[in-house]
Automatic annotation (TrEMBL):
Alphabetized UniProt keyword annotations: Signal
Keyword Signal included in the entry's annotation: yes
Domain M23ase beta-sheet core: 64-119, 151-180
The protein's name: Peptidase M23-like protein
Keyword flag Isomerase: no
Highest taxon of source: Bacteria
Cleaved signal peptide residues: 1-31
PANTHER family listed in its UniProt record: M23 FAMILY METALLOPEPTIDASE, PEPTIDASE-RELATED
GO molecular function, a single term: metalloendopeptidase activity
Xref: CDD domains: M23_peptidase
Length: 639
């Protein structure tokens, strides 16, 4: 009775969440600013045709792209113009992310941002340099007084560059409101950008969303390649389906005369000429941008790099992008019914591409006979949403049941359908976590440690670790694998996203020689290692994990490396690096006085900028570089 009550409560809460999300989306759409054509001018080569390497809403690894990436002729140093009258309200210098960035606030309440800059215009540059020397730091964030740096529309405020996380020279340009919601700049009507090219539809997927779902007779995600004929995309065959399903679309947009793969802003789904879903990526709250991992099929993205956008609203997704009041865009396929489906993908300029196909409802049919031969029994399983899918095959010509142990009780898992030589069984994990599967005399442990609910705090402990989930750590229920193999700790897998970090405490079995040099590292799928840090308490260390996967405690006892590249009375340059924990800080002094060193992480170089350009560098130079483990290297020379 308790399980039924909890399930009904969960279902009611999800329906209420859907209603509130729909109301919020409607209100947000009504509250967004009306774009006044001509209010903003184009910030790069205004009045001249230009091109974009990135557009609003483009799918990135951890976020939606929040503005425009404007090409700068593959070079640095182009003039950057203020898009409208206003004042510089914020300026920041950073090694990563936006790099050097200017924020200009305008009388209409909006703010434009200009990032990856090479240099600021003279009055601002002098102000920033003075503050850097006052605080003796390269990375700095400043909020000038309102009347300190007024700007006029068309005034040069900077030179374009390649600083921060930029992958090449360009200007990243944004339009934000006072709440840091990001808006599509192209809505303000820039004539410098020409686009008459409709989006490309590269792939289409259908995802089963409940235990009764079948797509072409199977409970598994199916992927199709649309065929384009006379400008219309179709699927080659009718799709046969049953139960609750959701559509996914891989689409990109290309602007005229360029091959860059940009984002498509709008996707609408019609079923039997009735709209059942729409997403419109024209505004993204900055703090919700990470929820891109629920907007796309994250599992497919992590495995293949392909971005299939869901044409339904997944649970845990709070983005105000959707209009899908009926069933969150999910389609419940009934047997013997016909569904004429039309997906329309549009870019900012309303260039559209259409995909049409037919879904025919199909009754669930169980075939007793197996086709195919196997030489020995085989068993495999996977988890899709809340469903455990078990594939079993042996030398028998007819399907056999799989025995499942749940709460020390043996249950028979009856096949749901057959596929070739295998019988496929489905089990809803909300009924209890299986401990093992037994088939043809062989037991297979599942190692499902716990069902971690979303939307509430939860603490999990086994003999190897303690994991504390915050209220917003998960998007949906997590069926947790957590284990230790040697010195490597595994939590979940690479293919399930976290919304907010989790706190993990482990006690390494291998003694740590120097805890001040030891930290937890995230082990990527390749050879990459990312330092997460951690706080020691006795022999245990607690760290914050922003993604699930594999973790290991490593000791960094090697100091950073320093190489002098050039020196002169006008400037000194070094290459610095660290092979494990990464560079944390650096300090350069000439005759005991601090010298500003700018850091370009993409080339691992630091280079000086003098406060007084008229005074040559001369004397003893001492550079000290620390890594994140506290190791320090020192380099001494003279100019």
């Amino acid at each position: 009775m308790l399980k039924i009550k909890n399930y009904l409560t969960l279902k009611l809460n999800k329906r209420l969440a859907l209603l509130f999300a729909y109301i919020f989306t409607t209100l947000a759409a009504a509250a967004q600013p009306a774009p006044e054509q001509g209010y903003f001018m184009f910030p790069i080569k205004p009045g001249v045709r230009n091109f974009l390497s990135g557009s609003m809403g483009e799918i990135r690894a951890t976020h939606f792209h929040g503005g425009l990436d404007i090409k700068t002729d593959q070079r640095e140093g182009l003039s950057v113009y203020a898009a409208a009258d206003g004042y510089i309200s914020r300026v920041k210098m950073s090694t990563y992310g936006y790099g050097n960035i200017i924020y200009v606030t305008h009388p209409n309440g909006l703010t434009t941002t200009y990032s990856h800059l090479l240099a600021f215009y003279d009055p601002l540059a002098d102000y920033v340099l003075q503050k850097q020397y006052e605080k003796e730091t390269f990375e700095l964030e400043l909020f000038p007084e309102k009347n300190l740096f007024p700007v006029k529309k068309g005034q040069i405020i900077a030179l374009s560059g390649n600083t921060g996380g930029s992958g090449g020279p360009h200007l990243h340009f944004e339009i934000r409101d006072a709440e840091d919601r990001l808006y599509n700049p192209l809505r303000w009507g820039f004539k410098e950008i020409i686009d008459t090219t409709p989006p490309d539809l590269l792939g289409f997927g259908i995802q089963p969303l409940n235990i009764h779902a079948r797509i072409n007779g199977e409970f598994e995600r199916k992927e199709f390649t649309p065929k384009k004929t006379n400008g219309v995309h179709t699927l080659p065959d009718t799709v046969f389906a049953h139960g609750l399903i959701g559509f996914e679309l891989q689409t990109i947009d290309r602007y005229d005369d360029t091959q860059n793969r940009n984002g498509t802003q709008d996707v609408t789904v019609f079923v039997n000429n009735k709209q059942v879903y729409n997403h419109h990526i024209d505004r993204v709250p900055f703090e919700l941008s990470k929820q891109v991992s629920q907007h796309v099929n994250y599992n497919v993205y992590r495995r293949t790099g392909r971005t299939f956008q869901k044409a339904y609203v997944d649970y845990g997704n709070d983005l105000p992008l959707y209009t899908a009041p009926q069933n969150r865009g999910r389609l419940n396929i009934q047997a013997d019914s016909i569904y004429h489906v039309r997906l329309v993908a549009k870019d900012t300029y309303n260039n559209a591409s259409t995909l049409t196909f037919v879904v025919k409802g199909q009754k669930l049919v169980f075939t007793q006979k197996l086709n195919g031969k196997v030489t020995k029994p085989q068993l495999s399983y996977e988890i899709i949403g809340n469903i455990l899918k078990v594939n079993a095959s042996d030398t028998s010509a007819t399907p056999r049941n799989v025995e499942m142990v749940v709460n020390n009780q043996r249950l028979m898992l009856v096949p749901s359908y057959t596929k070739g030589a295998a019988s496929v069984s489905l089990y809803d994990l909300r009924g209890g976590l299986p401990e093992s599967l037994e088939y043809c005399g062989t037991s297979t442990p599942l190692n499902l440690q716990a069902a971690i609910p979303s939307g509430q705090e939860y603490s999990f402990t086994n003999r190897d670790m303690t994991i504390r989930f915050e209220k917003e750590s998960l998007y949906d229920t997590l069926y947790l694998h957590a284990k230790k193999e040697g010195d490597v700790y595994t939590i979940g897998d690479f293919y399930t996203p976290l919304h907010k970090p989790v706190k993990v405490t482990i006690t390494p079995g291998t003694p740590v020689t120097d805890k001040s040099k030891a930290a937890v590292y995230y082990l990527g799928q390749g050879k990459g290692r990312g330092m997460l840090g951690g706080v020691w308490n006795g022999n245990s260390i607690t760290f914050s994990a922003r993604a699930m996967g594999k973790f290991k405690v490593l000791e960094d006892v090697k100091a950073p490396t320093i190489k002098l590249l050039s020196k002169s009375p006008t400037q000194i340059r070094f290459r610095i690096g660290d092979d494990l924990s990464g560079v944390n800080s650096f300090r350069c002094e000439v005759n005991g006085k601090w010298l500003l060193m700018k850091y370009e992480h993409k080339t691992a170089t630091i280079y000086s900028e003098k406060l007084d350009k008229s005074i040559p560098l001369s004397g003893k130079v001492v550079l000290k570089v620390k890594d994140n483990a506290g190791n320090e290297a020192e380099f001494v020379t003279t100019i």
